[in-house]
Design goal:
alpha/beta; Rossmann fold; 6-stranded mixed β-sheet; 21% strand
């Protein structure tokens, strides 16, 4: 069961979801959950596994949901927790969580939140895109690549990419939904053709409804043109505001490698809540 729970946790993380995990780390006496038993709850409310059922499981599930309600930055400061449960009424008043149970045993349970690593979709596999992929690999992040040109988005060029996609923008967008696009923490629009970037941006703004960050490489003039086109397409200022342009921290970057460093540093700062 532990392996099945952990496999489920990895699947949810790969989908871009946060996961809270409870593990029984110690048991004494008659208890429903043995050491190693696990219960996982995702940020979408799905759950998998068990720590014994009944009132114990309900109490632990609530604890996991409480942890998921905290921000990433708060969880980095406070971490998870360990709670002791005693499964009989007479335990009330002790420095443990007493449950209305007749089992008579005791459990020690750890609870933690596992955050998904950033998964960056590089939309434009040129020099900067390649440099971003290298920084992602160095940081242990996932990255995927999309380009309308096969020579810039193929498994040989991006051998460590999670996904490599080559198609028209319209075909790419038709294959995505609000749910599926959530597997990416960030989408970086860095193509060679402004019209391709504009089509992709407007399409993504119609799909992304929160969660996934959209960044566009380019000047303020370019962004002004994109904004006008987005408004003319029917998008509102609020819907457009989830995207940012230009991207990258202001560090005086010039080369593709420096620009990639600035972009990934900004993503890290956004992840940590420092900007």
């Amino acid at each position: 069961m532990s392996r099945a729970v952990l496999s489920w946790v990895v699947e949810r993380l790969d989908a871009g979801e946060r996961v809270a995990l409870a593990s029984v780390i110690e048991a004494k006496g008659s208890v429903p959950g043995k050491p190693g038993a696990k219960l996982a709850v995702s940020s979408t409310g799905e759950k998998f596994g068990t720590v014994g059922g009944a009132g114990l499981e309900l109490r632990i599930e609530k604890g996991l949901l409480d942890l998921l309600s905290k921000s990433k930055s708060d969880m980095r400061k406070t971490g998870g927790k360990i709670e002791n449960f005693i499964l009989y009424k007479e335990g009330k008043g002790q420095e443990q969580v007493a449950l209305d149970s007749l089992c008579g045993g005791q459990l020690r349970v750890s609870m933690e939140v596992i955050e998904p690593v950033p998964h960056v979709l590089i939309a434009g596999g040129g020099h900067v895109g390649m440099s971003v992929s290298i920084v992602c690999d160095t940081l242990g992040w996932q990255h995927s690549v999309f380009d309308i040109r096969e020579e810039y988005s193929n498994p040989e060029k991006y051998s460590s990419a999670t996904e490599v996609m080559t198609s028209s923008v319209s075909d790419f967008l038709q294959g995505e939904t609000t749910s599926s696009i959530g597997r990416f923490s960030d989408i970086l629009i860095m193509g060679h053709d402004w019209s391709v970037d504009q089509e992709l941006l407007i399409g993504l703004l119609n799909i992304c409804k929160g969660g996934t960050r959209i960044g566009v490489i380019g000047s303020k003039t370019k962004w002004g043109g994109f904004t006008r086109a987005a408004l003319e397409s029917g998008l509102t200022d609020d819907e457009i505001s989830i995207a940012r342009c230009p991207i990258g921290l202001e560090i005086g970057a010039d080369s593709p490698e420096e620009i990639a460093l600035a972009i990934c540093a900004e993503i890290l700062a956004l992840e940590r809540g420092s900007i």
